[in-house]
Recover the amino acids of this structure.
């Protein structure tokens, strides 16, 4: 017997909503213009260069995909 | 001091973000060739609290996007100084101007269509052929659902793009800025099959429609 139909979950762009938060981070990190080669993030006073940025500038989904290819286990960072 | 760049708007879209930028820095703008690029000093982007900084970045974008079409930069995009910002605007002036004019009154809504775990699972022991058939059937269900939403929302949708993701299909609908509530209502009223989960989010800047197809 088929199950009853369900409905679409509608979320906005309010970070207070946990579901929206994931969407926001995904959009901020994955959508928009990229200027490759001009990005520098410093961590503990050390400039992370291009190679590191490819992982930082991505969603968890993409990062995990990179890690799986490289045979690494994702580490959760707060 | 290097600069964190947020987004580009048309110069005519005069609105300043009401929030301060990442690290509490003031958000300023640079104008060039009819474009305005919003930026702040980037000294505080440390990588330690990427999530919090990304949310502040989003808040600034939202302030500006609330009233005008924007072309956002991915967080964190950092340029060395204002001359580099101007060089970037000069290089991309034509495409940015064209995209902002085309998308002036439009926003992007996103539908994520997925199969629920039980429906997405393939039996552990299957032949290669069976496995491929399962994948094909899964894709067909998602594609059918996407097309259904596209057809039912056709009255509001100006353009549509979709792509597969590892969990299902992501669909992007370009709609009028003023039609967001109606679109949410319309899509929200569509009954969906019990094996699917569908999430509608937005309005977002129309980043999937920056290039004309």
């Amino acid at each position: 017997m088929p199950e009853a139909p369900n409905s679409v979950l509608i979320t906005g762009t309010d970070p207070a909503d946990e579901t929206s938060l994931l969407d926001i981070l995904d959009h901020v990190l994955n959508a928009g213009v990229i200027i490759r080669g001009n990005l520098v993030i410093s961590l503990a006073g050390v400039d992370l260069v291009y190679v590191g940025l490819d992982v930082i500038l991505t969603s968890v989904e993409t990062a995990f995909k990179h890690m799986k290819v490289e045979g690494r286990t994702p580490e959760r960072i707060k | 001091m290097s600069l964190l760049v947020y987004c580009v708007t048309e110069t005519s879209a005069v609105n300043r973000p009401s929030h301060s930028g990442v690290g509490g820095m003031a958000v300023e703008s640079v104008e060039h060739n009819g474009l305005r690029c919003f930026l702040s000093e980037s000294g505080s982007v440390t990588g330690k609290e990427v999530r919090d900084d990304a949310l502040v970045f989003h808040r600034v974008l939202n302030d500006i996007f609330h009233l005008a079409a924007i072309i956002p930069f991915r967080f964190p995009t950092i340029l060395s100084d204002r001359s580099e910002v101007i060089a970037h605007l000069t290089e991309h002036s034509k495409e940015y101007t064209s995209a902002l004019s085309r998308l002036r009154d439009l926003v992007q809504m996103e539908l994520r269509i997925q199969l629920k775990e039980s429906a997405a699972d393939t039996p552990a022991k299957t032949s290669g052929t069976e496995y491929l058939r399962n994948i094909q059937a899964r894709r067909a269900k998602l594609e059918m659902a996407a097309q259904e939403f596209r057809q039912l929302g056709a009255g509001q949708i100006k353009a549509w793009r979709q792509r597969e993701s590892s969990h299902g299909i992501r669909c992007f609908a370009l709609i009028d800025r003023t039609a967001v509530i109606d679109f949410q209502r319309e899509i929200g009223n569509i009954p969906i099959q019990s094996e699917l989960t569908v999430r509608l989010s937005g309005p977002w800047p129309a980043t999937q429609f920056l290039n004309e197809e």
User: Anything to note?
Assistant: The interface with chain B takes residues 2-13, 15, 19-21, 23-25, 27-35, 38-43, 48, 56-57, 61, 65 of chain A (CB under 8 Å). Strands of chain A lie at 9-11, 41-43, 46-48. The longest helix of chain A spans residues 18-30. Confidence is low (pLDDT under 50) at residues 37-42, 48-60, 74-78 of chain A.
